[in-house]
Specification:
heterodimer; A: 261 residues; mainly alpha; two-stranded antiparallel ribbon; 2% strand; B: 273 residues; alpha/beta; Rossmann fold; 6-stranded mixed β-sheet; 3-stranded antiparallel β-sheet; globular
C-alpha cells in the first residue's frame, strides 16, 4: 500500500521537532485547564444548562481537547490551491499518485503523531486524575470510528475549500470562513447551547460530522438511541464530502494553471 | 548516437497563454479595475512544434521568462495547453497524468523533492513504493546511483543538513530511480561550484549513454555544450532555432568556439528582427 508510506513519512517527521512538540503539549494542557475552570464557573448555581450536566459538558470539551490535534492536522489541505499555484507541489503532481489520496494519508500520518504524542498522554493523565471518565468499551469503539470519519470529513472540507482558492487565486478569506465552520461543528461548545434555528441549520450541514458527533458519543450527550442514527448520518456526510472534494479536484485539474518558474 | 527512430516527445503548435489581471495606474483606475477586472494575455509559449526521439539529448535554451519552465510543465502534464497538442510516450500528459508520470522523471534545480526533515534514504524508500519498483530492481538501482553519484555516505543524513551540491546529487538520483524513459532537467546545476557541475554533467552523459532521453533546460551553456546533441532556442515563447550546435554557430555568423557568444549573437539578431 503505497499511500501508507506517505502517512509513515509524516508520522516520523513529527519526531524532528522537539521544541514544537513541548509547546503543543503545554498548550493542550493549558486549554484543558481553561475548560475545567470555565465550566465549573458556568455551572456554579446550576445543575443543568441547555439540558446538559456539568459532567457531560466537561467530558465533551475535554475529549475535544484530546482530539484537537488529530482533527486540525488535515486542515493543511486548505493550502492546496496556493501550493498548486506557486508550483510548490509540482513534484507531487508528476508522481503516479492521486494527490487527494496522498494528502489524506499524509494528514493521517500527522494526525496520528499528534494523537499518539499529545492527545493520548493528555487523555491518560486526565483519566488518572479522575478528571475525565473513559466510556464503556462499546462506546469507546464507536467514538473511535466516529473520530476517524470526522478526520475524513475535516480533510475533505478543507481540501474542497483549498480547491476553491485555486479559482479565486487567493487563500485570504478561507481562514475566516473556517471560523464559521468551527462554530457549527461544535468545536468550542456542544451544539445544545445554540438557539433552535442554529441547531436545525447544523442538522442539515456537514460540519456536525467534523467534531460534534464523536464528542457527543464519548460524553454521553448522544443518548443510547441517538448514537447509531448519528453515525449513519456522519457516514453519509463523510462519503458525500469525499465524493464532492474529489470531483472538485478533477475539475480543477482540468483547468490547471500552475504558475511561476 | 543510436537513436530509436520513434519519437517520444511530439509537440505540435504547442501554446500556453496566461491571463494576467491588470493593475490600475492610479486610485480611480484601481477601483474601476477592482470592480471590472481587465486582463492582458501573456503568450508564454506560442505555437511551438518539435519532435524528440528516444535517446536524444536536447538542450533547451532561452532567456529568463522565455517559456522554458512552461514547456517543461506542459510536457509533464502539470499544465494544460491553451492550443496545440503534445504527446509524451504517445500519451497526452495532462489527460494521462498518472500513466505519463510512471515513465518520466523531473528534476528542478531550484526545488528539491527530498523529504526535508528526514534522512535521505526515507525519500528513496518512499519513491520506491510510489513507483512500485520491484525490490531487487530497487536495490540494484540504489546501489548504482549511490556509486555513480557518491551519495552512499549521505544515506542517513537528514536532507536539510545537506549542502547544495549534495542535495542536487540526491535529487538527481531520485529522478532516475524508477528507470524513466524521459527525464526533464530544469537548471540542474544552478548554484553549483565547478567541480560539482562537472560531476552532474558526467552523470547526465552516462544516463544518456544508457538510452535515457534527456530534455535539459539550463542557463549554463557549458552544460549544454557538453551534454546536448541538439539545441533548441526559445525566445518570447517562439522556437527560434532547432538543430545541432554546429548549425547554431554557423547561423550566428561563424564557427565560434564558444556557445555562449553564439547564443548572445543569436538573441541580439532576433531582437533586431
Amino acid at each position: 500500500m503505497k499511500y501508507l508510506m506517505y502517512a509513515r513519512s509524516e508520522f516520523i517527521r513529527g519526531f524532528r521537532y522537539r521544541a514544537n512538540y513541548w509547546a503543543t503539549v503545554i498548550s493542550a494542557v493549558a486549554l484543558a485547564v481553561i475548560q475545567w475552570y470555565l465550566w465549573h464557573a458556568a455551572y456554579t448555581d446550576k445543575d443543568l444548562i441547555a439540558g446538559l450536566s456539568l459532567d457531560q459538558v466537561l467530558a465533551y470539551t475535554l475529549i475535544g481537547r484530546v482530539a484537537a490535534g488529530f482533527l486540525t492536522a488535515p486542515t493543511a489541505a486548505l493550502r492546496i490551491g496556493s501550493r498548486v499555484r506557486t508550483g510548490a507541489i509540482v513534484h507531487d503532481m508528476v508522481k503516479p499518485v492521486d494527490l487527494h489520496t496522498q494528502l489524506l494519508w499524509q494528514g493521517l500520518g500527522r494526525a496520528g503523531f499528534s494523537f499518539v504524542a499529545t492527545g493520548l498522554p493528555l487523555l491518560l493523565a486526565m483519566a488518572a486524575l479522575g478528571v475525565l471518565e473513559i466510556p464503556s468499551p462499546g462506546r469507546l469503539l464507536l467514538f473511535l470510528i466516529s473520530l476517524l470519519m470526522a478526520y475524513v470529513t475535516v480533510f475533505s472540507t478543507s481540501f474542497l475549500s483549498g480547491v476553491f482558492t485555486f479559482y479565486t487565486k487567493t487563500a485570504v478569506g478561507v481562514d475566516y470562513v473556517y471560523t464559521v465552520v468551527s462554530l457549527l461543528s461544535g468545536e468550542f461548545l456542544p451544539l445544545e447551547f445554540f438557539p433552535a434555528w442554529l441547531r436545525t441549520a447544523a442538522d442539515y450541514l456537514p460540519f456536525k460530522s467534523m467534531h460534534y458527533i464523536p464528542m457527543a458519543i464519548w460524553s454521553g450527550i448522544a443518548g443510547p438511541g441517538e448514537v447509531v442514527p448519528s453515525l449513519i448520518s456522519q457516514c453519509l456526510w463523510t462519503l458525500g464530502m469525499v465524493a464532492v472534494s474529489k470531483m472538485a479536484w478533477s475539475g480543477a485539474l482540468k483547468s490547471l494553471t500552475v504558475q511561476g518558474g | 548516437m543510436p537513436y530509436d527512430a520513434s519519437p517520444v516527445i511530439v509537440a505540435s503548435n504547442l501554446s500556453r497563454y496566461f491571463r494576467v489581471r491588470l493593475d490600475g495606474e492610479n486610485l480611480k483606475d484601481r477601483i474601476k479595475r477592482f470592480i471590472k477586472p481587465q486582463y492582458r494575455v501573456v503568450k508564454a509559449l506560442d505555437g511551438v512544434s518539435f519532435s524528440i526521439s528516444q535517446g536524444e539529448s536536447v538542450g533547451y535554451i532561452g532567456l529568463n521568462g522565455a517559456g522554458k519552465s512552461t514547456t517543461i510543465k506542459l510536457l509533464c502534464g502539470v499544465l494544460v495547453p491553451t492550443a496545440g497538442t503534445v504527446t509524451v510516450n504517445g500519451l497526452e500528459p495532462y489527460r494521462h497524468r498518472t500513466a505519463t508520470a510512471r515513465r518520466i522523471g523531473l528534476m528542478m534545480g531550484q526545488r528539491t523533492q527530498l523529504l526535508w526533515d528526514l534522512p535521505v534514504h526515507e525519500s528513496f524508500n518512499l519513491l520506491g513504493k510510489i513507483y512500485d519498483i520491484k525490490p531487487d530492481v530497487f536495490k540494484a538501482n540504489v546501489k548504482r546511483l549511490q556509486d555513480v553519484l557518491d551519495i552512499g555516505p549521505l544515506w542517513h543524513t537528514p536532507a536539510r543538513m545537506l549542502s547544495l551540491g549534495q542535495k542536487t546529487r540526491c535529487d538527481l538520483a531520485l529522478t532516475f530511480l524508477h528507470d524513466p524513459s524521459v527525464v526533464f532537467l530544469d537548471e540542474p546545476t544552478i548554484g553549483l561550484d565547478v567541480l560539482a557541475r562537472e560531476r552532474i554533467r558526467d552523470f547526465i552523459n552516462e544516463e544518456k549513454r544508457r538510452g535515457v532521453t534527456i530534455f535539459l533546460a539550463s542557463h549554463d551553456l557549458d552544460d549544454l555544450e557538453i551534454v546536448a546533441d541538439r539545441v533548441m532556442l526559445i525566445h518570447h515563447g517562439k522556437l527560434l532555432f532547432d538543430g545541432t550546435q554546429d548549425q547554431l554557430r554557423q547561423l550566428a555568423g561563424g564557427p565560434l568556439v564558444n556557445l555562449e557568444e553564439t547564443v548572445k549573437r543569436f538573441y541580439r539578431e532576433a531582437e533586431l528582427g
